[in-house]
Design a protein that fits this description.
By secondary structure, the protein is mainly alpha-helical. It has helices spanning 2-32, 35-47, 55-62, 70-100, 112-144, 150-174, 178-185, 189-200, 204-225, 233-261. It is globular and about 60 Å long.
């Protein structure tokens, strides 16, 4: 948990600088959450109505795109596009701050041209991996909902939920530091991927476990947000804050791990550097 704690501390100290980078994509991702389908799925386990759920409803409850409404699809796509831009700027900011110890936006936006293509590529790849995960998980849930035994359904869904998360995070961990390795070293695409794997290999199990804990907690909070009383604004506001923090934590933690494993001294931790 050392990397996670360091990342949380970094976000707390620099929240005012980081938050503008993630606010817009977080809002679009919050709008892409199909709260109706997600609530039906969760209530189905409570009142036993899950057999009536269609595959589309299950998929829409776990997917960023959903495909049951043009609003969720557009929101998910806009979230992906703006995330590529926001993450590019956030990575540039944290890299500059950790490398020379100076905060602020000076020089950050000028690096957008250098970072945008690599960040967009990784963002699109992560979206594809997640949507494939959502399809398989939804199919497994739909299969389990055909069981006549409630206990068997719950056990199967639990195993499928955690098992698919492990598979998803295993794939992500293979290239966990791909983005900072590519942007920092100047390596070609697959050279940066190989370097990322070499850096992460000794601790890939810890990275997966900590990512699993964070992801499950985040999903539980987002699921709980759909039951918040109020109109459309309140659940979206809560989900926006959750997505904002998730994006910041993922990117900052990536940089913290990279600087440590690559043996790069972090200037932001030195008090004698001007902030």
């Amino acid at each position: 948990m050392r990397y996670t704690i360091q990342s949380i501390k970094y976000i707390a100290k620099n929240f005012i600088f980081l938050f503008p980078f993630v606010l817009v994509p977080a809002f679009f991702f919050a709008c892409s959450v199909d709260s109706i389908s997600l609530e039906l799925l969760l209530r189905g386990f409570v009142d036993g109505s899950y057999p009536s759920l269609t595959f589309g409803q299950i998929f829409s409850s776990v997917s960023f795109l959903g495909f049951t409404s043009w609003k969720t699809v557009i929101s998910g796509l806009l979230g992906t596009v703006t995330l590529a831009v926001g993450a590019s700027l956030l990575m540039a900011f944290t890299d500059r701050h950790m490398r020379i110890g100076k905060r602020g936006y000076h020089g950050v936006f000028s690096r957008l041209n250098d970072n945008i293509l690599s960040t967009a590529g990784i963002t699109l790849l992560l979206l594809v991996c997640y949507e494939l995960f959502a399809v398989i998980l939804s199919a497994l849930f739909f299969l389990a909902f055909r069981f006549t035994n409630f206990v068997a359904t719950v056990i199967f869904c639990s195993v499928a939920y955690f098992g698919m998360h492990v598979v998803l995070l295993f794939v992500i961990t293979l290239g966990y530091l791909w983005l900072p390795c590519f942007q920092d070293t100047g390596f070609h695409t697959f050279e940066a991927l190989k370097y990322s794997y070499q850096l992460c290999y000794p601790i890939k199990g810890k990275i997966m476990f900590h990512q699993l804990v964070l992801l499950v907690v985040a999903e539980a909070l987002i699921a709980a947000s759909v039951f918040i009383p109020g109109d459309f604004i309140v659940p979206v506001l809560v989900a926006t804050l959750l997505f904002s923090y998730m994006i910041m934590l993922f990117c900052v933690r990536m940089q913290v791990v990279y600087f440590d494993l690559a043996k790069i001294e972090r200037a932001d931790l030195k008090k004698y550097y001007a902030k």
